Amino acid sequence: MLTGKQKRYLRSLAHHLQPIFQVGKGGMNDQLVRHVEDAIEKRELMKVSVLNNCLEDPREIGEELASRSGSELVQVIGKTIVLYKESTDHKQIELP
């Protein structure tokens, strides 16, 4: 579980990142979760964008994606989801 200070720090790092994955009208599926798990192991911090044609709520998508991928939900702002998971092999981010 992340503290408020850690979330603020991660939000500042994520500000300059571009979204890696997009959730479209098909919504979430197992393939998307598998790709997110692989990418977050390498990057630790990533953004996912929810397209306008997706009918689901971005906050619900973010919570489900975080729980299914084993990561932490840092922020959902608009249609952008920020996820964090500490990497075992590629550790780059040192939390305060």
UniProtKB/TrEMBL annotation:
Any single Pfam family the record assigns to this protein: CRS1_YhbY
CRM domain boundaries: 1-96
PROSITE patterns: CRM
Xref: Gene3D superfamilies: YhbY-like (3.30.110.60)
The keyword RNA-binding belongs to this UniProt entry's keyword annotation: yes
Cited InterPro entries: RNA-binding_CRM, RNA-binding_domain, RNA-binding_YhbY, YhbY-like_sf
GO molecular function: RNA binding
Keywords per UniProt: RNA-binding
Keyword Aminoacyl-tRNA synthetase tagged: no
PANTHER family linked to this entry: RNA-BINDING PROTEIN YHBY
Protein name per Swiss-Prot or TrEMBL: Ribosome assembly RNA-binding protein YhbY
Native source species: Paenibacillus alvei (Bacillus alvei)
Lineage: Bacteria, Bacillati, Bacillota, Bacilli, Bacillales
Encoding gene per record: yhbY
